[in-house]
Amino acid sequence: MANTEIHIISVRTYLIVYVALMVLLVATVGASMLPLGGLHLPVAMTIAVIKAVMILLIFMHVYYSTALTKIVSVAALLWAALLILILVADYFSRGWLDIPGK
Amino acid sequence: MSSLSTTLEEAVAPARTETLLSPHFDDVEQQSNASILGMWFFLSTEIMFFSGLIAAYTIYRSLSPEAFRLGSQHMHVWLGFFNTLVLLTSSLTMALGVRQSQLGRRDGTVWYLVATAVLGAAFLGVKAIEYSMEIEHHLFPGVNFQVPAEDAEALAAISETPEALQQNLGHFQMMFVLYFFITGVHAFHMIIGIVAVLVMAALMKRNWFSGNGTTQIEVLGLYWHFVDIVWVFLYPLLYLIDLSGGH
């Protein structure tokens, strides 16, 4: 296995991540109250992804974990992306071709 | 006397390593990595499970965006804000609990785990208050569900045909079906998490683990942080669709 010692993250690092998560929480509520037109969803999801990545890398120690764990954690998100993308693509392209029993 | 204690330590030490290490692993580190990897496989299935629900949400919201926007305005934004804050804080206490166990500090681990469970319970308490208010306002899907009059009017104004209006009204209720189902399943995960955290805290207190329970607490932490991440997405998707009021 790659690393021999458990990497112990400092309290300071955890607190910095926590404060950043709080700032982003305020930012996501603030953004929902701004007149962004159609941009509310992309902005909210961008903030959510940043928060999730910080939790994944630091709180869940993925940054310091073995390569195999990194691959599995990323693959899980790829499966989720495939599920949603293909479902959405299927749903919205069904009416395009006039096939009986679609 | 000292020679006797040395002999005792030497006699005890190998036995302790044996209980720490299961025979099918090469070393303790491989064993720990296997546990963490196993938890990640479980979390992958959990991600798929919640993705299915998010996918259903995506489809219905894209079919009736205005119904979802109006539905979202009935959520209690500041209770949700408070709950997100509580849950992120519980993730911090959990991370610090894992750190304590890595340092071999059992008492510290127990206290951080208890703090995590208390914050988790606070989250559920606030969620219960939200649910009761929504049920009181006839927003729980089913026979007692009522589309509020102003929302029904707003949907009538944007619907071009009676069929489109029926679909929008139906999808307004569907917003609440998804809301109660997804947050309900999330709350169920929280209940399991709180029980697991308390069980682990009790075992820690009783000195039940070999090797300070570092791997066990770490794996527990992965589950807890995962449930937190799910909420990080649910909060903006359900509560914060568009609060600018500029439509």
Any guess at the CATH architecture of chain B?
Up-down Bundle
Helix and strand element order of chain A = HHH
Number of E strands of chain A: 0
Task: Find the structural class of chain B using helix and strand composition.
Answer: mainly alpha
Mean pLDDT of chain B: 90
Order of helices and strands of chain B: HHHHHHHH
Indicate the CATH topology of chain B: Four Helix Bundle (Hemerythrin (Met), subunit A)
CATH class group of chain B: Mainly Alpha
Instruction: Give me the number of helical elements of chain B.
Output: 8
Overall radius of gyration of chain B:
24 Å
Percentage of residues in helical conformation of chain B: over 70%
Biggest sheet statistics of chain B: none
What's the overall geometry of chain A?
Answer: flat
Could you characterize the architecture of this molecule?
The complex is a heterodimer of chains A (102) and B (247). In chain A, helix 1 (11-33) runs antiparallel to helix 2 (40-59). Chain A contains three helices and no strands. Chain A is 69% helix and 0% strand. Chain A is flat. Chain A starts with 10 loop residues before the first helix and ends in a 9-residue tail after the last helix. Chain A folds into two domains: 1-65; 66-102. Chain B has a single domain (36-239), classed as Four Helix Bundle (Hemerythrin (Met), subunit A) (Up-down Bundle), CATH 1.20.120. Classes of the chains: A mainly alpha (102), B mainly alpha (247). At the A-B interface, helix 1, helix 2 and helix 3 of A face helix 2, helix 4 and helix 8 of B.
